[in-house]
Design a protein that fits this description.
By secondary structure, the protein is mainly α.
Length: 133
């Protein structure tokens, strides 16, 4: 996927990618670090989307009619996602969807691109190893 993004960028296309990077698999795969190495020399704006767990759970219930486990706990996959998705926590821009509407998030991204389009997060992440040094 990342090589495809790089190829499209080389052609002069603007590419928007909406993915979550995490490394909670049976073995660490270094997905974000590999992504950063492939895309570090391209004009990438890496945006971290944050939202408190209680709001995430409210949204899961509202969307799918389910959220908490039978004993009232947070499902393990949600816990693992929250623990890993923001590692190492380096972004060009961070947004909190519990306080910003989708329009305000899009406006913040547009404003950031218009004022300072090239980020440095991927350059920093690419210099790290997948063990988080």
């Amino acid at each position: 996927m990342y090589e495809s993004i790089a190829a499209q960028s080389r052609l002069g296309l603007n590419v928007v990618v909406d993915v979550g990077h995490h490394d909670f698999y049976s073995t660490r795969r270094g997905i974000l670090y590999n992504c950063a190495r492939v895309l570090k020399d391209f004009p990438v704006l890496f945006v971290g989307i944050r939202c408190p767990l209680d709001v995430i759970m409210e949204r899961r219930i509202a969307t799918w009619g389910t959220g908490y486990t039978e004993d009232g706990g947070v499902p393990q996959p949600v816990i693992l996602w929250q623990e890993s998705v923001h590692v190492p926590g380096i972004y060009d821009l961070e947004l909190d969807t519990s306080v910003l509407s989708s329009k305000k998030c899009a406006d913040a991204i547009r404003k950031r691109i218009e004022t300072d389009p090239y980020g440095i997060a991927f350059k920093q992440i690419s210099e790290m190893n997948s063990e988080g040094d």
